[in-house]
Amino acid sequence: MPTAIDVSSVVGLIAVGALTANILMGLLMASGYNPQRRWPRRHIKIFPFHNWIGYIALALAMLHPSIMLFSDTYRFRVIDILWPLESPQQPWINTLGAVSLYLVAFIVITSYFRRTLGFHRWKLLHYTNYAAACVFYVHGILSDPLLQNRPVDWIDAEKVYVEGCALAVAVGTVMRFRARRPSRA
Length: 185
Prior knowledge:
With 185 residues, this protein is mostly helical. It has one domain. Helices cover 67% and strands 0% of the residues. It has eight helices and no strands. The radius of gyration is 18 Å and the shape is globular.
């Protein structure tokens, strides 16, 4: 029977995958990718898909620490989830996770008010994605999935998955800025 720690770890990995997919999709849109002109040569509305992946990723990122409230091994309180500086295990690493969650929530909320904010202001705020990505990848790599404060095993399958996601975003970001579109101004 999987424990709350196991379930939380798996949900966290799924959240990292969803957040990575969403960032990569955003990079595609920012570079001017059009699925009608390029592969798969079909009419696909990418923007709503990008939004929904963002909502799902945020929900998963919120669910990930919330599951720890049901742990029999460690007694996490609601305050340990919201402000984990004094959480029972890995307080600094959990704080990184909380910071990344708050950054992702900020990105989703400001995206909801994109029209009200105006494109230029919204886009400047949306660059927070890169900070959120850095923080949630560092959180995913440094955290011990069993909360036993073991040293980081850099070639553990879960860590390699998170490292691969970070590499994919880094490569996608470099490719996006090398294929820079002319500005809308």
